[in-house]
Amino acid sequence: MKKSLLAIGLLSLAGTAFAAGKPCEELKSEIAAKIEAKGASHYSLEVVDKGTATDGKVVGSCEAGTKEIVYKRG
Fold it and tell me: What keywords is this UniProt entry annotated with (predicted)?
């Protein structure tokens, strides 16, 4: 009984953490590392409010989906 309650508690905590989303700077760093690992050198990543990206490609979403990370070449 105690083990099942503990498991339920851990699952609810994990769900809460997932719903909160990653901080934008943490996700931006992870995306930059992946881009650089593929050999790209002239690019920029910018954090913007969701839905305001006018140019570039949205490559991530952070802070519970309220912000987006936009990739631009050059």
Answer: Signal
User: Whole-angstrom Cα distance, residue 72 to residue 56?
Assistant: 5
In tens, the pLDDT along 7-53 reads: 343 344 444 344 458 899 999 999 999 999 999 989 999 999 999 98
3-state secondary structure of 38: coil
Paired tokens of 3: 């083990």
Q: Which two tokens stand for residue 55?
A: 């140019």
Identify the three-state secondary structure at position 73. Answer: strand
Give the DSSP letter of residue 65: T
The pair of three-digit structure tokens given for residue 48, joined into one six-digit string: 């913007």
DSSP 39: T
